């Protein structure tokens, strides 16, 4: 386990560096990230490199056993470069070229900028490709942040060429985009615009292809730097730092050439009132792990109050830095670097606090992080070969996220409403989740659902863009014995962002056993009563069904026409009274649940519990009084499986009050070996790591 910080020696006097290195070593740090914003310091004028200061910083850190991840500084082109070549600056949607200042002020397609990028990366690789103090490289910084798309003439020409390669002919493009609408047929590639300012709205097909083009441009930009580093630093690992649920770039694509994924995690940045961030952070971490199916790094972990544009967010409470670190570890982090080592006294991030405050003296946050690093060093060694148990897959596609951004259809159909609510239901039960790119293979696993063996449940949370091939994989998963949960608006569009001339859910209608007869979009805040009565998990006809539950739906209402499926939920008011809202369809050895509205948490989680029982997935948590005891808790449970039948359970309390987790099976404390459970009480923001007790036969933790 690597613990460290993001360090900026170029911003502090050299006389301070030895003390910083000593304090880092005392805190258990073994790695720092350096230089990702230091282009002007490394190359003060074109072709003249000054690496002596970086050599010295690496030497000082190395004396204390600290290695470095070097960042290529391409997120901050220096002033001399912009002065000489202002054409590298991006152009906004209104055709205005932005000025120097801030960061990420470049066009990723600018030939002149790419020439300078290659030169600085090659110089760094030549200098440090064999350096004993360098262990890895980070390319750029938060690709696509602040301003993702550029609307310059170079980008327009590049977009037109990208379209030519994608479609081959204008006839094919015109057909896919439906340019007969509004007389938009193109007779020359040069006629095709970028989706900048226009009188009404651009064609949604053009906008989706432009989003793909922008993402591909950053992927090429990243691969160009990867190729240079592979030649110049062949023994070093390469990453770039992603931003969790950031949607502008296709992280599945960008992760491909990397040795490992890293990401930046700030749970306390601009928190929504009344919304706990635990599930959203967990989802981000699970996505990062799923991109390459291996452990990840947190390259920037919040270390103090965040502050942007001069506004300061609440400070992490005592215990929260430890909690956030352990949460990262529980979801697969093999390294956590805190941002930043010391709070800047100058520049735009003066109030984005680091481990040390502006004065540079160790305080409460330093001591909490030091203690956390010490704890992590005591983890059992077998956990290095363990993997999180993930019996559930949630399908996600960046094409689909872009299509939803282009046409949200209802203000309530947010990413949280469509995906995070399903994830949160699993998270509350301690059920691990893998994020799978829509269309990828869906291996079916046994009841335990270990990720190497496959999944037992697949959630398709309103996947608007769905290919027939993707639908076929979902059907194959269900027929093999899996349980599939499908949300509204799934399967309504093709890959060109055109609506299928079929009733929803389009290519998934057969496996769902249902079509959408009509639909209604509700104003935000309006709810409609829904009655739910789920069948027995074995789906035996005529057998007693489950209890009748009363709840509500909101935002979107599909009126369902079963075509072989069984109605198990109904609207009970308005013009929809008596019409089906939820269906269950037996398919092969499996089952498909179609949910036609956004259900309230009680009904949604009843469906999740039914699916878990049907799929044979047991959770590590139990509720002695009622299921509500689990749902009301702020405790997160993450289960890992290791060699020799071993299991570990991470318990994390995200609440400001003590909370008790009720466990299935027999457990021992991973550090003290003392018996634990069946009730484990955690302090506010407390963390406990347990191991399955030797000889425990519990199926839920096998």
UniProtKB/TrEMBL annotation:
SUPFAM superfamilies: (Trans)glycosidases, Class I glutamine amidotransferase-like. It comes from the Bacteria. Its EC number is 3.2.1.23. InterPro entries: Beta_galactosidase_Trimer, Class_I_gatase-like, GH, Glyco_hydro_42, Glyco_hydro_42_N, Glyco_hydro_b. Gene3D superfamilies: 3.40.50.880, Glycosidases, Golgi alpha-mannosidase II. Residues 392-617 form the Beta-galactosidase trimerisation domain. Residues 6-376 form the Glycoside hydrolase family 42 N-terminal domain. It catalyses: Hydrolysis of terminal non-reducing beta-D-galactose residues in beta-D-galactosides. Keywords: Glycosidase, Hydrolase, Metal-binding, Zinc. Pfam families: Glyco_hydro_42, Glyco_hydro_42M. Belongs to the glycosyl hydrolase 42 family. This is Beta-galactosidase. It comes from Carboxydichorda subterranea. The lineage of its organism: Bacteria, Bacillati, Bacillota, Limnochordia, Limnochordales.
């Amino acid at each position: 386990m690597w613990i460290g910080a993001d360090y900026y020696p170029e911003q502090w006097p050299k006389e301070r560096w030895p003390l910083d290195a000593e304090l880092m070593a005392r805190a258990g740090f073994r790695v720092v990230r350096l230089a990702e914003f230091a282009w002007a310091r490394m190359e003060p004028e074109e072709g003249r490199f000054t690496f002596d200061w970086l050599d010295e910083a690496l030497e000082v850190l190395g004396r204390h056993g600290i290695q470095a991840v070097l960042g290529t500084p391409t997120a901050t082109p220096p002033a001399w470069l912009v002065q000489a070549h202002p054409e590298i600056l991006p152009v906004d949607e209104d055709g205005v070229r932005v000025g120097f200042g801030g960061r990420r002020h470049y066009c990723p397609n600018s030939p002149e900028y790419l020439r300078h990028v290659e030169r600085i990366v090659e110089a760094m690789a030549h200098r440090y490709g064999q350096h004993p103090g360098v262990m890895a490289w980070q390319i750029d910084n938060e690709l696509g942040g602040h301003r993702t798309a550029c609307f310059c003439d170079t980008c327009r020409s590049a977009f037109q060429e990208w379209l030519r390669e994608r479609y081959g002919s204008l006839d094919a493009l015109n057909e896919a985009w439906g340019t007969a609408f509004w007389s938009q047929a193109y007779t020359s590639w040069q006629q095709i615009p970028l989706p900048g300012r226009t009188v009404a709205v651009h064609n949604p097909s053009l906008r989706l292809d432009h989003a793909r083009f922008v993402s591909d441009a950053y992927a090429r930009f990243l691969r160009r730097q990867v190729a240079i580093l592979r030649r110049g630093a062949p023994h070093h690992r390469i990453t770039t730092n992603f931003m969790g649920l950031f949607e502008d770039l296709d992280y599945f694509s960008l992760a491909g050439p990397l040795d490992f994924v890293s990401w930046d995690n700030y749970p306390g940045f601009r928190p929504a009132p009344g919304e706990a961030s635990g599930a959203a952070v967990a989802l981000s971490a699970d996505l990062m792990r799923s991109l390459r199916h291996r452990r990840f790094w947190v390259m920037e972990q919040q270390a103090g109050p965040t502050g942007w544009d001069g506004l300061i967010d609440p400070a992490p409470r005592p215990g929260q830095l430890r909690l956030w670190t352990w949460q990262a570890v529980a979801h697969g982090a093999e390294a956590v670097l805190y941002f930043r080592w010391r709070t800047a006294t100058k520049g735009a991030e003066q109030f984005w606090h680091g481990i040390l405050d502006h004065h540079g003296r160790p305080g409460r946050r330093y001591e909490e992080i030091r203690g956390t690093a010490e704890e992590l060093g005591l983890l059992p060694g077998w956990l290095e070969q363990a993997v999180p148990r993930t019996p559930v897959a949630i399908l996600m596609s960046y094409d689909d996220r872009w299509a939803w951004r282009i046409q949200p259809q209802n203000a309530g159909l947010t990413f949280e409403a469509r995906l995070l609510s399903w994830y949160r239901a699993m998270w509350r039960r301690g059920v691990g989740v893998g994020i799978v790119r829509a269309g990828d293979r869906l291996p079916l696993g046994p009841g335990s659902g270990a990720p190497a063996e496959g999944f037992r449940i697949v959630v398709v949370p309103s996947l608007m863009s769905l290919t027939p091939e993707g639908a076929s994989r979902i059907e194959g998963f269900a027929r093999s014995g899996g349980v599939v949960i499908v949300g509204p608006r799934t399967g309504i569009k093709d890959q060109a962002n055109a609506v299928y001339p079929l009733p929803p859910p389009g290519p998934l209608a057969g496996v769902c056993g249902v079509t959408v007869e009509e639909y209604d979009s509700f104003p935000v805040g309006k709810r409609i009563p829904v009655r739910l009565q789920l069948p027995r998990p074995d789906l035996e006809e005529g057998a007693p069904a489950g209890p009748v539950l009363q709840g509500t739906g909101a935002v979107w209402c599909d009126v369902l026409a079963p075509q072989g499926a069984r109605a198990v939920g109904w609207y009970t008011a308005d013009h929809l009274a008596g019409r089906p809202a939820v269906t269950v369809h037996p398919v092969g050895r499996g089952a498909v649940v179609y949910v036609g509205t956004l259900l309230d948490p009680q009904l949604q989680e009843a469906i999740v519990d039914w699916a878990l029982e049907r799929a044979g997935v047991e959770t590590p948590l139990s509720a002695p009084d009622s299921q509500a005891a689990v749902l009301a808790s702020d405790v997160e449970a993450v289960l890992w499986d290791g060699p020799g039948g071993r299991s570990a359970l991470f318990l994390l309390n995200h609440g400001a009050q003590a909370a008790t987790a009720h466990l299935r099976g027999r457990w021992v404390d991973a550090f003290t070996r003392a018996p634990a459970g069946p009730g484990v009480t955690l302090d506010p923001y407390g963390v406990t790591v347990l191991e399955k007790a030797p000889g425990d036969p519990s199926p839920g933790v096998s």
